[in-house]
Amino acid sequence: MITRDWVRMMAAYNSEMNRRIYRASERIPDAARRADRGAFFGSLHGTLSHLVWGDHAWMARFAGWQRIEGTIPQSPHLFDSWEALRAARVKADAGIEAWAETVDEAWLRGPLTWVSGTSGKQQTKPAWVAVTHFFNHQTHHRGQAHCLITQQGVKPEDTDLPWAVDLAALGLAA
Asked: Are 14 and 94 in contact (CB under 8 A)?
């Protein structure tokens, strides 16, 4: 099972990786960010939009956030401008980090029940499994975004967790 410290570390990693991916993305012209490159969510903009949408869907389950309207197929098209998408990302990351500070071990061990937007069916899983999926989902789609960025000739910053997260700032350094 994961721990509260793991959740805090992953929230910090998520925020830092998003900063790095967005900095690299800003070196690509808007039209190229929006061009369909054959990725699962089409474009770089669409992939990053889906991530914001997905984060809100999971945080609605974890912490009562307001869900962003729309479905998975609509999620790549939710933000009209790069500025709106970037602002939504920054706000979500701050909220995820704040939530991570409140997570306790008992909640992680307990059940989490929600209605899946995909299947329309009620799901119950241990909260720690859902939280693990939440962070894995982010990493998966950021990997796709990383590929789309490098295909445009831009090299994002390092993505390795041990060098990206300031463990001492989290009080996790040995």
From this structure: no
